[in-house]
């Protein structure tokens, strides 16, 4: 008796019994007529099939700050700090004020706040004279007076008299207006006559020198710097005088 050791290689023959097909089991073979081969459409319907056709993509954003240390910003250097706009303005006005003090302009301007009560009427009168004189000069050059006044020397004298006459009216009005203004303000505020006179002096000094700086605002840098010397010196003088009063 011989043993067949290759029995596992033996193939079934036609005489071997074949398993009978199970007709109760559904056919899971994909339909070749279906273009997408979606055989699960019979199980889940068309709505579920559309869901599978267009899958939902969930995007997860990664936070870069997690697990990472923020880079510390380097502090600005001294050159970068000095190149800022605030420091440029400080050096521009500070150098102008220093030159004004060195030239003795600060000593001259310092006399006005020191004697504010006596200087205020004169400064206010000067402001009134300049304002009214400028108005008279514009009126003398107007077309209305040019049609009325003669073009001879007499017409020029009349225009000149108009300018100086209005300037004198402005001067007198400024001098006489200060006591009335001081008395009116003192009724409704704790300011004294000296305080009002000091404010008048400061407004006149900064107003006049500020107008000069404003007129040269579009000129080259060196001209703007020279025009800023009176204004910067006036502001510094008034600041030093105000600090002395507080101390």
Treating each run of at least 4 consecutive H or I residues as one helix, how many helices? 9
> What overall geometry do the principal axes of the alpha carbons give?
extended
Order of helices and strands: HHHHHHHHH
Rounded to an integer in angstroms, the radius of gyration calculated over CA atoms is: 49 Å
Biggest sheet overview: none
| Number of separate strands | 0
- In whole angstroms, how far apart are the ends? 134 Å
What is the beta-strand fraction? under 5%
Approximate helicity band: 55-70%
Low-confidence parts, pLDDT < 50 over ≥5 residues? Answer: 47-52
Give structural notes.
- With 247 residues, this protein is mostly helical.
- Mean pLDDT is 75; it is low at 47-52.
- The protein is extended, with a radius of gyration of 49 Å.
- Helix 5 packs antiparallel against helix 7, helix 5 (116-140) crosses helix 8 and helix 8 (193-215) runs antiparallel to helix 9 (221-246).
- The chain is built from nine helices and no strands.
- It is 66% helix and 0% strand.
- It has helices at 41-53, 78-82, 85-102, 105-114, 116-140, 143-148, 153-188, 193-215, 221-246.
Key attributes of the depicted protein:
247 residues; mainly alpha; 9 helices
Briefly summarize what is shown.
The chain is mainly alpha-helical. It has helices at residues 41-53, 78-82, 85-102, 105-114, 116-140, 143-148, 153-188, 193-215, 221-246. The termini are far apart.
Please outline the helices and strands:
Elements: H1 41-53, H2 78-82, H3 85-102, H4 105-114, H5 116-140, H6 143-148, H7 153-188, H8 193-215, H9 221-246
Helix pairs in contact: 3-9, 4-5, 4-9, 5-7, 5-8, 8-9
């Amino acid at each position: 008796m011989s043993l067949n050791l290759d029995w596992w290689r033996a193939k079934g023959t036609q005489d071997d019994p074949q398993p009978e097909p199970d007709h109760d089991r559904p056919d899971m073979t994909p339909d070749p007529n279906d273009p997408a081969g979606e055989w699960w459409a019979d199980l889940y319907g068309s709505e579920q099939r559309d869901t599978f056709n267009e899958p939902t993509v969930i995007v997860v954003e990664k936070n870069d700050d997690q697990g990472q240390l923020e880079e510390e910003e380097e502090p600005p250097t001294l050159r970068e700090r000095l190149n800022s706009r605030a420091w440029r303005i400080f050096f521009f006005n500070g150098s102008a004020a220093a030159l004004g003090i060195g030239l003795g302009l600060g000593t001259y301007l310092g006399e006005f706040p020191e004697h504010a009560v006596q200087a205020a009427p004169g400064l206010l009168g000067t402001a009134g004279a300049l304002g009214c004189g400028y108005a008279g000069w514009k009126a003398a050059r107007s077309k209305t007076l040019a049609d009325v006044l003669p073009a001879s020397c007499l017409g020029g004298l009349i225009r000149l008299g108009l300018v100086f006459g209005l300037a004198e009216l402005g001067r007198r009005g400024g001098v006489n207006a200060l006591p009335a203004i001081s008395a009116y303000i003192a009724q409704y505020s704790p300011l004294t006559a000296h305080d009002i006179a000091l404010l008048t002096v400061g407004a006149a000094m900064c107003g006049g020198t500020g107008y000069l700086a404003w007129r040269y605002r579009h000129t080259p840098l060196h001209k703007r710097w020279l025009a800023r010397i009176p204004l910067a010196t006036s502001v510094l003088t008034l600041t030093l005088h105000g600090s002395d009063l507080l101390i």
